[in-house]
Amino acid sequence: MATEVSHNLTQDHYTESGEHIVSRGRSVTDIGSWLKKGWMDMAHAPAASLFYGAIMALSVLLVYTSFRETPIMMFKIATFFVMLTPFLATGLYATSCQLSRNEKPNLTSSMFAWRNNKAEFAFFALILGVVIAIWGRITPLIAAIVESNSLLIIDPNQGVMSFLTSDAGQSFMVYFMVGAASLSAIVFALSVVTIPLLLRDHNIGVISAMILSMKVVMQNKLVMSVWALTIGILVSLGIVTFGLAMLVVMPLLGYASWHAFNDLIVVDDKRATDDIQL
Predict the structure, then answer these.
(1) How many separate domains does the chain show?
(2) Is residue 273 one of the residues assigned to a domain?
(3) CB-based contacts of 229: which residues, under 8 Å, 6+ apart?
(4) Which UniProt keywords are present, listed alphabetically (predicted)?
(5) Is 106 helix (H, G, I), strand (E, B) or coil?
(6) Which of 77, 164, 245, 246 has an alpha carbon within 20 to 30 A of 55's alpha carbon?
């Protein structure tokens, strides 16, 4: 577990292994800078951007076509994707790191960037898996609260719209959105720094990284709240366009999140891995 010392807009954190990590306070205006840098990375890595964007776009489309007549399952799976987005963006973080070192983006290397810290990434994936499993159990309970027998789509030709315009469907969505937003906020707070830090620094453990991530979020409450809202709006845009907008949204947010991390965190220890070993 890390200890910390505060100095105005910066906080000094010391891990169990003696590493010195500095977290910095940022302003809401930095979000525009992160998105701008992310957009520039998209222009410099079009192949990788298209690849990762297409994977997410196809995933959203597949979920819609597979579960369009079972909306409860559709919304549950959609939430899974939102919670997994930070982990799925690992390859984009690696690509952005390559660009920052003036290297030519290597898609294959970015896809396996996690391999240099396999144990910690596996542990974090397990933690996310537990969270998702819990949410998977909660969703049917929400349906039961609003009388699941009435949540059938009345007109299959209208698909999800028939569900959303029904009284039971609207009641379900109120409870569902509150629960999903709360759980997604927790996942965001625990992961916003964790995954890029595991890529950046091979000496830190996942638990220490998660604790640090939470501390960074608390240090930048307003900025992180607006950033989380921005991510939520853009991801929602990708979902409601049946995945089409994900072609841009996924790489943009992945790259921007890497630049956000580098503005928020400075690893100051000679033993820390200076860059991702790709």
Answers:
(1) 1
(2) no
(3) none
(4) Membrane, Transmembrane, Transmembrane helix
(5) coil
(6) 164
